[in-house]
Amino acid sequence: MEARAYWTVAPGRGEIRTETLPLPGPGEALVRATLSAVSRGTELLVHRGGVPDAVAERMRAPFQVGELPGPVKYGYLSVGVVEDGEAEWVGRRVFCLHPHQDRYVVPVTALTPLPDDLPDRRAVLLGTLETTAVNALWDGRPLYGDRVAVVGGGMVGACVAALLGRMPLTRLELVEPDAQRRSLAAALGAVGVTPEEASGDCDLVFHASATSAGLQRSLELLGDEGEVVELSWYGDHPVTLGLGADFHARRLSVRASQVGRVSPHRAARHDHADRRQVAVRAAADERLDALLAGPTPLADLPPLMDRLADGAPGLCHLVSYDGSAP
Q1: ω before 69 within 30° of 0 (cis)?
Q2: Contacts of residue 222, Cβ cutoff 8 Å, sequence gap at least 6
């Protein structure tokens, strides 16, 4: 059986390639993809060739083929239906951390069954919700009545804001210079503001703009002894941050949130599978549909990546496959 997949063949250039699939063996499943999604931040770094050599191995996707900067098959937001393999899995809708490919064979341990009431279009967000947004909240540990800001209204920031929007906070602002992204805040349970309008004296700030200016503004928004949870992945872009002024006097903190490990604040009681189930429940929130754009057929993914790299709108762009419903 042949399959079609998207490959980054060189910085700034992608193409659809055909490959032959093996038959599923014991403990494996053949999945027919119905939708996948572009994880805009990381995948555009891969598209541009912006992943530093020093961290290329750590940045490997679970079913990546090839090596960065390319040729490489990279991606990790895929939803489909099991067509063959382990009998108890056949016919089930599943999520998998797999690149953009119309059919693939993976161990059933890599699959997350989807509840009937979770549509495919929203299920593609599970990778971002679980590894980034849920983990970020476990790292930051927002409390009842906190004043919280999310700086950066991209896919990651919007997912974090959506989870925070379900909590009893005193204040939640989505800080974003782009008016179109800022307009999504109300649907997520937040107030959209520009960096200049943002309220200070925050207990906690989640930073997801991937810019030095955004990180600097995040520190400025903190109250005394407040903390920034850093979610941005900068690739090979240097980060400049002013820590002179009152950073030490006010005992401010910057904490890295890393997607590959369960937050140390929950690791004693939760593993990756537990974290994934938290994300499945979070994905039931219909407000997350506001993040979605497209779909675009797999065959048109190479020019779509070019448009996204040039700044085309859409936080989470869906990729459709033959016979799949948008």
Answers
A1: yes
A2: 200, 201, 202, 205, 228, 250, 252
Phi (first) and psi of residue 61, to 5 degrees: -80, 155
Per-residue pLDDT tens digits for 130-171: 878 999 999 999 999 999 999 999 989 999 999 999 999 999
According to DSSP H, which parts of the chain are helical?
Answer: 40-48, 120-123, 126-128, 135-140, 155-164, 179-182, 185-188, 212-220, 272-282, 301-309
Read off the pTM: 0.85
pLDDT band at 323 (very low <50, low <70, confident <90, very high): low
How far does Cα 158 stand from its chain's mean position? Answer: 10
Q: Give residue 72's identity as a one-letter amino acid code.
A: V
Q: Please give the order of strands across the beta sheet that includes 65-66.
A: 13-20, 2-10, 72-73, 65-66
Strand partners, 94: 80, 113
